[in-house]
Amino acid sequence: MTPITSRILTRQWISRRFAQQAVGAAGAVRGDHDLNPGTLPRAPLTPAAVLVPLIDRARGLTVLLTRRTEDLADHAGQISFPGGHIEPGDGVAEEAALRETEEEIGLQRRHVEILGRLDDYITGTGFRVTPVVAVVETPFDLAPDAEEVAEVFEVPLAFVLDPANHQRHSRRYDGKERHFYAMTYGGKFIWGATAGMLVNLYERLVRR
Questions:
Q1: pLDDT recorded at residue 172
Q2: For 111, which DSSP code?
Q3: Nearest to 158 by CA among 80, 18, 61, 81
């Protein structure tokens, strides 16, 4: 498929695509098991939510990502979206994603317009993650939590939506070969669940 051009990647186009496209069939999920059949973790899964922030820059839409600090209990040092556990007081995934984003990087919800959800993503570590896609108005200020976030950076949405940048890698884990999606941009290696969600974003916006 011919990659989509950055010229038409506007906030209005993204909003229309989310309005036109429904999330997959009820109960459908994505996950690490997509590329590794037979590795779906057993229930109960821990519910979590992440924000997939599309930054409305004058030069074009970008995707905001974070690099986690090296001493976290889960996914230390990996590139991820802001987010975390869905707490009892959150009610819905959208609220959890907004709350966690405020806590992790200081992005205030008044700048955020939620567009919709991607398919839930099940990680091999036992989380069921709901990705919440949103457009973020500029300008805004960030105040990353130094205990959780080592770096905040952005990747052009046009790069993410070009299938030529969707790689598949593998490495041995617990004596078994595990396969995963990956993207490399500006020296940043985006892989695993985050890359899988970005591939799902591509499928929602371009391929369907």
A1: 80
A2: G
A3: 61
Contact between 100 and 83 (Cβ < 8 Å): yes
Q: How many domains does the chain have?
A: 1
Does 25 map to a domain? no
What span, in angstroms and rounded, lies between the C-alpha atoms of 109 and 107? Answer: 6
Its pTM stands at 0.91
Q: Which residue bears the tokens 């790069």?
A: 159
Concatenated DSSP letters of 51-119: EEEEEEETTEEEEEEEEE-TT-SSSTT-EE-SEEE--TTT-SHHHHHHHHHHHHH---GGGEEEEEE--
Give 11-34 pLDDT, tens digit per residue.
999 999 898 866 554 456 899 999
Residue 22 lies in a domain: no
Q: Is residue 32 one of the residues assigned to a domain?
A: no
Q: What's the domain range around 68?
A: 6-16+39-207
126 within domain boundaries = yes
The two tokens of residue 67 are 């690099």
Cα–Cα distance measured from residue 32 to residue 181, given in angstroms and rounded to the nearest whole number: 9
